[in-house]
Design brief:
Length: 178
């Protein structure tokens, strides 16, 4: 998968795949349903035991509705019937990447909410008359229900102003999520 910049580590068997999963962290496993010694369902179950967030895609030439339902209930992300095109597997991988990104964002936001981000208002110290004016305006607009659009170059303190507005607003008791 060089053109998609994906590192692939092949395993000759289900047992080898499980050994690799115990030794290293992986985002995704693509396994065949029928293999000697261990099935794709076994790989799915063990992979989910090791890392409940891992994405497992099962491929098979012997698909049935019952097998598909069983695999999806067991936590498979997708179930592909052979033969499939390179475009089909690339689409599944892209969908998996989006899923991973959303899970990571969700975990970050949950952490922010559970810890309150930084729930205490910090006193902003300003020396320049322009900055004092901006802080006064921010405190004043915080009392309204209006949406506020803050612009400026990177590093100019947009988030500091947003926090000032939030902690001076009627929503100050709710989490600030940047």
């Amino acid at each position: 998968m060089r053109r998609k910049k994906i590192d692939v580590i092949p395993a000759e068997s289900g047992q080898k795949a499980l050994k690799l999963l115990q030794e290293s962290a992986f985002d995704m496993v693509i396994t065949d349903m029928r293999m000697p010694g261990i099935t794709g369902m076994d790989v799915l179950a063990k992979a989910k035991e090791i890392n409940s967030n891992i994405i497992v895609v099962i491929i098979t030439a012997f698909g049935s509705i019952e097998n598909t339902v069983e695999a999806m209930r067991a936590g498979a992300f997708n179930y592909l019937l052979k033969p499939f095109s390179a475009d089909a597997i690339e689409a599944v991988i892209e969908k998996a990447r989006e899923h991973i990104s959303l899970v990571e964002e969700n975990n970050y936001l949950r952490h922010q909410v559970s810890t309150g981000g930084s729930r205490t208002a910090r006193k902003v110290i300003a020396e320049s008359p322009q900055m004092k004016q901006i802080l006064a305006e921010a405190t004043q607009v915080a009392k309204s229900n209006a949406s506020i659009f803050i612009t400026g170059e990177s590093g100019t303190g947009k988030e500091v102003i947003a926090r000032t507005i939030h902690y001076n607003s009627l929503r100050a008791n709710r989490p600030f999520i940047k």
